[in-house]
Amino acid sequence: MRIGRLALAAAALLLLTTASVPAGTPLSQTERHGLSSDAFEPRGAAPRPVVQRPSHEPPFGAFVGSWDRYIPQIGRYAQWLGNANLQVGHTYLAGNGWADVEGEPVVLGLWSQWRLADPSRMLVLGVPMLVPNEADVPDGEVARLLGQGARGEFDQHFLRLARRLVALGGADTVLTLGWEMNGVTYTHRCKPDPTAWKAYWRRIVSVMRSVPGQRFRFDFAPNRGLDAIPWTKCYPGDDVVDIIGMDNYDQPAGATFDDYVREPYGLQDQVEFAAKRGKPVSYPEWGLFRNGDNPQFVQRMVEWIRTHDTSYQTVTDYCPHGFWQCGQNPRSSARFKQLMTGSKGTPDGTQPTPPAPTPQITPQITPPPTPAAPASPTAPPSPTATAPAAASPSGAATATAAATGSPSASAPAPASASASASAEPSPGSRPARR
Asked: Rounded to whole angstroms, how far apart are CA atoms 417 and 73?
C-alpha cells in the first residue's frame, strides 16, 4: 500500500508539473513515458495495442485554399508531383457568423462536384462549432456559448449545413468538427467547459446524422501534445467519432520527431488511443513551422503516416508550413516531392464508410425563422463567387444552389495563392496557426 501511495503521489506531481507545458514542448525521457493516453498510469502496466500496419499509401492531399477558385490548384499540385493521385480535397468553413457555418451553397456545390468526379476522392471540411470563431472571445463567454449549444440553441445551423451537403452531393464528407479544440486559438475550444463541449459535439453529430441520405464521418482532430487541456478530456465518445485525427506541425524549436512521437498526448498516444477503439487515425493538418526547412521532419512524418492505420492526410501548403507554395523550404520541398511523386494513392480506390451508429440524443429541432441568420457584424460583405470555368459544369452550381434555397452570407475570400506566396490566407478562410 505504501508503494501504491508513493506512485500516486509521483503521478500527481508529474501532472502538476506538465499542466503548464505549452503544446509540443519536449519533455524528459522519464516524463515522456510516465503518461498514457487516457489515464495517468505508467506505460507497460497493460499490453499496448497493436498500431503498426503494413506500409500503404493513404489518401493524401494538401490544403491550398478554401474558396472555390482554389479547386484547380489541386490539379496543379498533382502535376508538380508527377501526376500523383491527390485524392483528398481539404477546405474550411469560415466562422464569422452562423451563415458561414451553414455553408455557402455555390462553394459547397463546387467542392462536392470535385469529389463526385472520382469515386476514390474524399472531401474534408473543417466546421467551426461557435461564432465568431477567431475573435479572442473570453473563456466565460465561451463556456456560456458551449452551454447554449449543448441545449440545442444552434441546432438549426448544423441541420442546414447537413441538408445542403447532402443535396449538393457531399453526403460522405469527412467533417473535422471543432478542430484543435484542445488549444486556445478558436472560440470552439474545449477548456472553458469540457463537459458542455462534449455534450455539444454529441448534439451536433446527432443533428447532422438525422438528415436522410447522409454518410458523414466525424474526425476528432486536436493539436498534438499537451496544449491548453489534455485532448482526452474533450473526447466525446466512440459512438459519435469515426476518425481520431491530429494536427502535427514541426514545433517547438529544437524538438525532434521522436519528441513528437513520445510526448504525452503525442503521436504514439494518438495511435494507441485509436487502436483501443478500433478507429483509424488522420492528419488533417501537418507541415513545417518553428524548425524551418527540415527535410528530416518531412521524411519521418511521411513514414509515420504510411506505417499506421491512416484514413487520410493533408499537408498545409503555404508559408511557413508547406512545400509547393513556399519557396523558403527548398530542401523540404525536394524531399516531399521525392517521397510523393507519382503516388497512386490508396490502391483499392474508395475508403469504406462505416454505417453511422444510432444517435443517443434525440434533439428537438426548432424551425428557423424565415430570414437567413445574419452574419456577424464584423464579417465583410459577401463576395460574388465566380468559379473557374474548368471547375464547374455549366450552370450546375447555380441550379444546386437554387434547389437548396437562397445562398447564405459567404466566407471572405482568402488571399490569392501563387507558387511564390508567403503570406497566410485570411483568418476567415482557414485556421490560424499558434
From this structure: 9
Q: Residue 105: which H helix or E strand, with range?
A: helix 105-116
- Spell out the residues 6+ positions from residue 241 whose beta carbon is closer than 8 angstroms to its own: 218, 219, 220, 235, 279
The tens digit of pLDDT for each residue in 26-67 reads 333 323 333 334 443 444 555 677 766 666 689 999 999 888
Mapped onto helix, strand or coil, the DSSP state of residue 31 is: helix
Which residue in 296, 225, 301 sits closest to 263, CA to CA?
225
Distance CA(400)–CA(198), nearest Å, equals 34
CA–CA separation, 318 and 325 (whole Å): 5
Report the distance separating Cα 39 and Cα 244, nearest Å: 17
- Among residues 193, 260, 184, the alpha carbon closest in space to that of 20 is found at 184
Q: Which of 180, 263, 303, 424 is catalytic?
A: 180
Mean pLDDT across 132-149: 97
Residue 432 half-sphere exposure toward CB, CA atoms < 13 A: 14
User: 3-class SS at 60?
Assistant: strand
Whole-number Å distance between alpha carbons of 158 and 164: 10
Residues 6+ apart with CB under 8 A from 352: none
Q: pLDDT tens for residues 378-415?
A: 333 233 333 333 333 333 333 343 333 333 333 333 33
Q: Are strands 310-316 and 243-245 parallel, antiparallel or unpaired?
A: unpaired
**Exactly one of 57, 263, 272, 285 is catalytic; which is it?**
285
239 DSSP assignment: G
Between CA 251 and CA 289 the distance in angstroms is: 6
Catalytic site residue 180? yes
**AA identity, residue 255:** A
Inter-CA distances, 276 with 10, 55, 245, 270, Å: 26, 20, 14, 10
Task: Transcribe 271-299 into DSSP letters.
Answer: HHHHHHTT--EEEEEEE--TT-S-HHHHH
Task: Say how far apart CA 344 and CA 284 lie, in whole Å.
Answer: 19
pLDDT above 80: residue 366: no
Please tell me what DSSP assigns to residue 123.
E
Best-predicted range by mean pLDDT (62-66, 207-211, 361-365): 207-211
